[in-house]
Amino acid sequence: MGVRLLVLVVLSVAIMVVDARFTLLKPVRSQMSLVLMQSYWIADLPERLYQGVASQFGSRTELAAENEKLKTENLLLQGRLQKLAALTEQNVRLRELLNSSALVNEKVEVAELIGMDPNPFTHRIIINKGERDGVVLGQPVLDARGLMGQVVELMPYTSRVLLLTDTTHSIPVQVNRNGLRAIASGTGNPERLELRHVADTADIKEGDLLVSSGLGQRFPAGYPVATVKEVIHDSGQPFAIVRAVPTAALNRSRYLLLVFSDGRSPEERAADAAQQQESLDRQTADPTAVPSATVPGAAPAATPNKAVVPATVPKPAGHSASSTPANANSAPAPATTAPAATTPAKPATSKPPVKPAAKPASTRPATPAATPAAPREREE
């Protein structure tokens, strides 16, 4: 038994070293998560049973469903309102840099926290959304108050999120009051961030709101990150010591938001916006061109007795049939235009020679149609 225990201990240490130093066991971990999901479900079964019984005896299932729906809607609305604080101060500056049509509202999805990393030196959490739900590496995660971190590991049905306060995490931010840019890094303390390499003469003070600048092309711009708590100026140091408190409740939030932001670069968004503007300009220009194309067709309609009328007047079939025999009596040339006048009405019978046009003139207009033709010619 002692030898078996020693072999298992050595094997366990070797696997932990390989998992920490190399990436060979990531596929195995991804597949093992499918098996562990069943254990998570079984471990969470008593709590879910208790909640189900409590809801049945307390307020019934309708009130519980309505409560969950209201929580989700409240979380979504709070996530949308977060950008208002930044957009109020940066509206003029953003309009100068980007076209308004290039600013696309991000799509979000609600996720739930189901686990935390037991290692006290790393700040990571596990959420119940994974690769099957469309989650990607580096996707931003936020709660109802601000940014929390980003996805660093994907599994089929779960994901690991690295929080802002981890010592290996940094995020580009800017002061909402004046647009001053800086880098906020984690300190290992869930209630503290530090701004590195901030000049001692920089315009930053206690109470300033720090928002994401979007310069790293990872986090969307304009979301709250932290609030400046302390600014220490040392005359002997080139940089000031700036400490901030995260706006997100990193150790209390249970429901989170996954942000599906636009993966295009600012240049691509600006180019697409310019193309959309050009297409809108063309659509506004087309209505002015359509009347100009239709006006020449309406002018010949006012002179129905000329040689161009049979080719341009498609509306009254009876009037065009009566006008072609009159033109045939006046000049020999309209013999070639008579087929063109009959083609718009019934092209199957009017393409043969001029005889079909002569028959209606000889049969029906003997008494009524011959008399109106002469007065029309006299009036013209």
From TrEMBL:
<comment type="similarity">
    <text>Belongs to the MreC family.</text>
</comment>
<protein>
    <recommendedName>
        <fullName>Cell shape-determining protein MreC</fullName>
    </recommendedName>
</protein>
<feature type="domain" description="Rod shape-determining protein MreC beta-barrel core">
    <location>
        <begin position="114"/>
        <end position="259"/>
    </location>
</feature>
<feature type="compositionally biased region" description="Low complexity">
    <location>
        <begin position="320"/>
        <end position="374"/>
    </location>
</feature>
<dbReference type="InterPro" id="IPR042175">
    <property type="entry name" value="Cell/Rod_MreC_2"/>
</dbReference>
<feature type="compositionally biased region" description="Low complexity">
    <location>
        <begin position="287"/>
        <end position="304"/>
    </location>
</feature>
<dbReference type="InterPro" id="IPR042177">
    <property type="entry name" value="Cell/Rod_1"/>
</dbReference>
<keyword id="KW-0133">Cell shape</keyword>
<dbReference type="Pfam" id="PF04085">
    <property type="entry name" value="MreC"/>
</dbReference>
<feature type="region of interest" description="Disordered">
    <location>
        <begin position="267"/>
        <end position="380"/>
    </location>
</feature>
<dbReference type="InterPro" id="IPR055342">
    <property type="entry name" value="MreC_beta-barrel_core"/>
</dbReference>
<dbReference type="InterPro" id="IPR007221">
    <property type="entry name" value="MreC"/>
</dbReference>
